[in-house]
Each structure stands twice: as C-alpha cells, then as structure tokens.
UniProtKB/TrEMBL annotation:
Membrane-spanning intervals of the chain: 35-56, 95-118, 130-155, 290-309
Entry protein name: Inner membrane ABC transporter permease protein ycjO
Domain ABC transmembrane type-1 intervals: 95-308
Keyword Cell membrane assigned: yes
Recorded GO CC terms: plasma membrane
Length: 323
C-alpha cells in the first residue's frame, strides 16, 4: 500500500516562496521605539493639537457662508463654497502660478543644492566649517527681510540691478521688473532659489555622507566613469535624502506668500493660492470662502506629499534597520 502525503499545500516549498517573510522586531528595536515615543510623544501630541485644530476649524467654517461683518448670519451651504471657488478662473490661474513657482524653484534648487553638497563634501577638512557657514547665510535671513532686499535691488527707483546689467539684452535703465508678470515672477523665483538652496544642500550633504565609500571606490577600480558612479552608486543611495529634500521644499514652495505679498501683492498675474486665501479671508472678510481656499490648499499639499513618497518608493523603515 502506497503512502499518500497528506501535508497541507502551504508547507510545500513553492507555497512558502509565495509568502512574504514577516519582519520581526528585536527586543532592542522595541525598547528603542518605546523610548522614542516616551521622549517625543508629549511634543508630538501638542503639535498635533496645534496643527489639527486650525485645520478642523477651517474645514468647519468652509461649510458656511460666514462673513466677519455679519457673524450671526451664518448659513450652512455644504460644499457650495468649493463649487464657487472651483468655477472661478481666478482660482485656476492662481493654482497655475503656484505650480509654476513650485516646479521651477524645486528643480533649480535641487540641481544647485546638489552641486553645493558635492563641493562641501569634497572640501578640505579644515575649510568645511567655514564653507558651510557661508552657504547657510541666505537661509538664516528672515523671509520678509530677504524679500524687501530683493525688491529694492530690482526697484526702478532705488535698485542697482538695471545699472549693473544694462549690457544684457532686454535690460535698460527704464526696465520696471515688477510692472509685468514674467519679470516679476523671475525676480520672485530668483529670491526663493537664493534663500532656500542652502536648505536643500544640507539635506543632500547628509545623503552624500551615507553613501558607502567602498562602493564608489570599487566602481572606480572597475573603470566606471564619473557619470556612471553618480548614476549607479551615488544617486540610488541618496534616494531617501532626495525624497525628503523635494518633499519639504515642494510643500514650502507651494505655500509661498511673503515674497509675493511684498514684491507685487499679487498684481500682474502673480497671485498664488495662499495670497488668494488671504485676500478672501482678511481683505473681503469672507471667512467661509477663504477657509474653503485654505482647505483646498491643504489638500494640494497633502497630495504632493503622497505623490512624492509613492514616486520615490523609499522604505524608510528598511533604512532604519532592526537590531
């Protein structure tokens, strides 16, 4: 009589291959996670309340027709405010300007920040501190002060840019940079790039420091060119740092307000979503409509965060490792 194997199919090697091994945390990892929550937990819940309460309040106010001039005449309109905003071409124009500023500044800052990070990474050890301090100076300046400085630099009355660059095509003594949308946006984006590139460079410098030196040396010994080492070794190991830099800077650029408010106040086609929310809430005192714009702005920023995390496909848990 032949023996029939009655073992369950799940125990076969093929079935076992189909199952993903479950990650098991060691006791040390669990204790570190517990200690982290004990140390950061109180501050986390305080920040959660500080951030969450205004968001929920704005979401609630956006469902009503609410004006500060008539606070008792609230009327529930549901998603009516959102319908009015989405049907307004001013909103879509502001969204386009916001996206343009975000994309251009983030791309340029990422390139310049990476070059600065490479320079700091390969700098002589004795001069690294001095170089990093000099590079960080623009980022340490308050945004309002920086915006006023750039405004006066390019001003037709008090600025010196026209006199210095009069030899360039299209630049003369009578050029008013803030009298047309294209040149005004150029100055605004230039000021943002100048101020926040150091932030990007520091994040990328941290990523460069984590690239294993033996891998780059092995690739160099194998005859890989500089571009091949950059493409196949350095950039893949910096993916987490690049994601963090793009994520934080894109969210910050999408909420730009100070520079535009000071330089143009939204004139000549430079109005962005944050300025539109400010004008609606503070200028026209329409709290309900302004709150709806703020909620849409928040949803756009949240969507950008999800796209960045999903697009880079970085598993930060794996990078932390379990010990």
């Amino acid at each position: 009589m032949s023996h029939v194997d009655t073992a369950p199919a799940a125990s076969t090697p093929r079935a076992a291959e189909g199952r993903r091994p479950r990650r098991v945390k060691s006791q040390r990892a669990k204790s570190e996670a517990r200690l982290g929550w004990l140390l950061a937990g109180p501050a986390f819940f305080v920040m959660l309340f500080v951030v969450l309460y205004p968001i929920l309040q704005a979401l609630y106010d956006s469902l009503f027709t609410y004006r500060l001039t008539a606070p008792d005449d609230r009327e529930f309109v549901g998603l009516g405010n959102y319908g009015v905003i989405l049907a307004d071409p001013v909103f879509w124009k502001g969204l386009g300007v916001t996206l343009l500023i975000t994309v251009v500044t983030v791309v340029v800052e990422l390139i310049l920040g990476f070059l600065l990070a490479l320079a700091m990474h390969h700098a002589i050890k004795q001069t690294r501190g001095l170089i990093r301090t000099i590079i960080l100076v623009p980022y340490g300046i308050i945004t309002v002060v920086s915006a006023f400085a750039w405004f006066y630099m390019f001003s037709i009355d008090s600025g010196y840019i026209n006199a210095w660059f009069e030899w360039l095509p299209g630049v003369d003594a009578d050029l008013n940079w803030f009298a047309q949308g294209s040149t005004a946006l150029f100055v605004i984006m230039l000021s943002e790039i100048w101020k926040t590139t150091p932030f990007i460079s520091l994040l990328l410098l941290a990523g460069l420091a984590q690239v294993p030196g033996d891998l780059t040396e092995a690739a160099s010994v194998d005859g890989a060119s500089w571009w091949q080492r950059m493409k196949l070794v350095i950039l893949p190991n910096m993916k987490a740092s690049i994601m963090v830099a793009v994520l934080f800077r894109a969210m910050d650029a999408f909420r730009i307000f100070d520079s535009i408010y000071i330089m143009t106040n939204g004139a000549y086609g430079t109005e962005v979503l944050s300025l539109l929310a400010y004008r609606t809430s503070i200028g026209r005192l329409e709290i309900g409509m302004g709150s709806a714009v703020s909620v849409i702005l928040f949803l756009c920023v949240a969507l950008m965060a999800v796209i960045a995390v999903k697009g880079f496909k970085v598993d930060l848990a794996d990078r932390g490792g379990s010990k």
